[in-house]
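Supplementary Methods S3. Complex input for the flavin-adenine dinucleotide-bound model.
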Amino acid sequence: MGKVTGFLEIDRQDRGYKPAADRIRHYSEFVIPLSEEGTREQASRCMNCGIPFCHNGCPVNNQIPDWNDLVYRGDWEEAARNLHSTNNFPEFTGRICPAPCEAACTLNLEDIPVTIKTVECAIVDRAWESGFVRPEPAEKKTGKKVAVIGSGPAGLAAAQQLARAGHEVHVYEKFAKAGGLLRYGIPDFKLEKGLIDRRVAQMEAEGVVFHYDSNIGVTIPAKEIHDGHDAVILAGGSEKPRDLPIPGRDLAGVHFAMDFLPQQNRRVSRERLANDPILASGKHVVVIGGGDTGSDCIGTSVRQGALSVTQLEIMQKPPAKEDKLTSWPYWPLKLRTSSSHMEGADRDFGVMTKAFVGDAGVKGLKCVRVDDHFKEIPGSEFELRADLVLLAMGFVSPVHEGLLQQLGVTTDPRGNVQADTNAYRTSVDKVFAAGDMRRGQSLVVWAIREGRQAARAVDLFLMGASELPR
Ligand SMILES: Cc1cc2nc3c(=O)[nH]c(=O)nc-3n(C[C@H](O)[C@H](O)[C@H](O)COP(=O)(O)OP(=O)(O)OC[C@H]3O[C@@H](n4cnc5c(N)ncnc54)[C@H](O)[C@@H]3O)c2cc1C
Ligand code: SF4
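Predicted complex, serialized as structure tokens:
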């Protein structure tokens, strides 16, 4: 695989970023791809491990050493075919996946993993440019009709697989456009939305029918969808945000991250805003929560012209470097600094917010430092100025009102739709579930995996056999 001595001869080199001072002036992507030669060199560092761990680290089990070898040899078309055999949407993961594959790479033992995500992105971007990505309509139709509710990565992956297996697939989406959190959560500077549009066009050419502004359980009764299809996949995501019910929570200027981020994405794509604008311009912003959502709030606030951005995390600051011998090949806990952090945000760890203060609108936060058991440290109280507070503390479960209650599906103790990862079947006849709606808040790559596997389970249910991959 690759060049046997590549990892000895060639240093790891990854994609760079355009300078922060330039990129914060716009909402476009700012990652600088490697040259073709540079990508092939990086792919050649894949070193013919006895047992490669990367493809188990990857939730869709991408056949990483195989396509690294193909890229090294310059066979981009076969690399694209191989990559698409396990991942419907590598252009999404090649941009925003946290790359657990690289954590699992044997070269990561020396902190120099193969730049797997960069190679993946180069393969698929080149495949689109070269016309290798084409619609693959089914040769035979089965006459079965499947509804997919939700057009995030789980719903899209399931719909594409099912259409290619010959089923008539209808995707129902409550918003005006497809993509779920890819479209309305993740900012354009991480993932430009034209990437979703061209996949939707490919899927339409494969026969998938998209029904927008269709909120199942609200504007269309769930029973109508259940009665009108041979199978239904629930892929509605995990949309109920975790709240912070402390004094001052109802002050103006305290918002959930997902009230703030989608507005900016809609501004970029010139969609109408449903609510009053929430803007960080000229404000001191505090983001509570340290994950991807918090990071996206930082990057968006900086671009809107915030005076300052501070991110608070209740957990203690993780170590800068993991202990490889106890963590490898698994995903390690360590300090992660995103491109948004580099654009100018203060980060503080081990901080609990006790109250929001202000009169009509929020003016600040009362905070206290906590130890690693979240016990308050006496005398460590402090106040922080804020005109805008964004709550980015994750999501507790799918929304139960409407769709799930009307169908009467059983939920698990965490409030997610109950279904296993073999049959993906819920407690209701011919209803399946995949993605964040089933597994809880997760990652795009896991949603793609679940969408693909649920599609196979539905195909098996409808036809008694399936040639779709697991
Ligand atoms: C701000 C933010 C940033 C993130 N960044 C990253 C990242 O960088 N990398 C990463 O891997 N993951 C990231 N994630 C997580 C990732 O986006 C999700 O795990 C993934 O999108 C889940 O996919 P899904 O298809 O299950 O659900 P979603 O993407 O949530 O899609 C669900 C869709 O269902 C629709 N829907 C819901 N109910 C109904 C209904 N009743 N009728 C019709 N339609 C309905 C919704 O409108 C939505 O379009 C991020 C999440 C957030 C919130
Ligand atoms: S999908 Fe994610 S984990 Fe899999 S190869 Fe791509 S970057 Fe790595």
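The longest strand covers residues 351-358. The chain has a mean pLDDT of 97.
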